[in-house]
Amino acid sequence: ESPSRRFAMPTFGPLGDGTDAENAGPSMADGIKPGQYSCFEVCQPESGILEVVMNKGMNAMSARFVRELHQILDVLQYPVTAPAEQMTVVRVLILRGEGAAFCAGYDFKDPGNNKANQPFLQHALSGVIKKLREIPQPVVCGVNGAAVGGGMSLALAGDLRVGCRQKARFLPTFVKLGLGGGELGTSYFLPRIIGRGRAAAHLLTGKEISTQQAEQWGLLNEVVEEAELAACCRKHAKELLGLSPKGLRLTKWLLNHSQELSLSAALDREDLAQSYMVADKESQQVGKAHIERFKGSSKL
User: Fold this and answer.
1) Span 205-222, mean pLDDT?
2) Distances in whole angstroms, Cα of residue 207 to Cα of each of 6, 133, 202
3) In terms of Cα–Cα distance, which of 94, 81, 93, 92 is closest to 24?
4) Residue 35, Cβ neighbours under 10 Å: how many?
5) CA torsion through residues 24, 30, 36, 38, sign
6) How far is CA 99 from CA 28, 146, 182, 226, in A?
7) Are 61 and 151 contacting, i.e. CB atoms less than 8 angstroms apart?
8) I need a labelling partner for 59 at 20 to 30 A (CA). Which of 137, 260, 276, 286 fits?
């Protein structure tokens, strides 16, 4: 890896705590509005959290589904600047399923998903996965049911995953459809999350990963009852809100590149990130508040 790539820092843009125009983040007013989308419901359950809910039947990935998800992610990555007093900062994204499935994958019934458009559609689908990793906000996925094919890829691209007990399932069905087992990042994410041997066993055969397996292997960070899924996703999001937004972004940046770097290059990136954070006033205020809470306590 070249020195210029090794030390390339992410640009922060509007990412802070919303106390001034320079630090303001994307808001509902910046282009994400309730009722704007046909495939998703969006809301802000509290300041700092944007919740995107897939609740249209099987939540299959139609051409409109992909286009609308691109639009939402673009606003989170490149928010339109607005006066700070009009802002409700988005610091964490929740992507959650409701209904019969988390996401049933590619919508074969959608007229827009035809073979003539395949090269464009393939690029558009993979672009969604890239953007989920590139946006500065941590992504909490709420897996309510089956995550099939490309729907599984959406869940894998999240940072944290919460699943419904006995319902959250992951189905890498690509080989059963006459395709390669690696699609939309599955061959990248799955071995890194559950290990190469387990990933190979499922990607080569298309076999389902059950809720129990997903929890045991770390594919699901937490498993809850269906009625508790939304609250649990919001709990995790709220925990992230209490941390430095720049620290979270740098952590996501480091994790995105960690598997491709040597130890030396990874340490160089960590050194650069920590030097930045030590010099950042807002981040140090977060750290100071954490230390103050534990002064005089024997607990860490």
Assistant:
1) 97
2) 38, 26, 5
3) 81
4) 7
5) negative
6) 25, 10, 27, 11
7) yes
8) 137
pLDDT of 276 > 80? The answer is no
Residue type, 287: G
What is the tens place of the pLDDT at every residue in 15-26? 333 333 334 445
Distance of CA 248 to the CA centre of its chain: 13
Encode pLDDT of 218-257 as tens digits: 999 999 999 999 999 999 999 999 998 888 989 999 998 8
Using alpha carbons, list the distances in angstroms from residue 75 to 32, 79, 96. Answer: 7, 5, 18
**At residue 122, what are phi and psi to the nearest 5 degrees?**
-60, -45
* Residue 163: how many other CB atoms lie within 10 Å: 29
Residue 249 corresponds to which tokens in the numbers above? 């972004």
Rounded Cα–Cα distance for residues 186 and 178 (Å): 16
Would you state the structure tokens that stand for residue 8, as one six-digit string? 């390339």
What's the sign of the alpha-carbon dihedral 238, 240, 242, 244? negative
Residue 226 per-residue DSSP state: G
Residue 297 carries which DSSP code? -
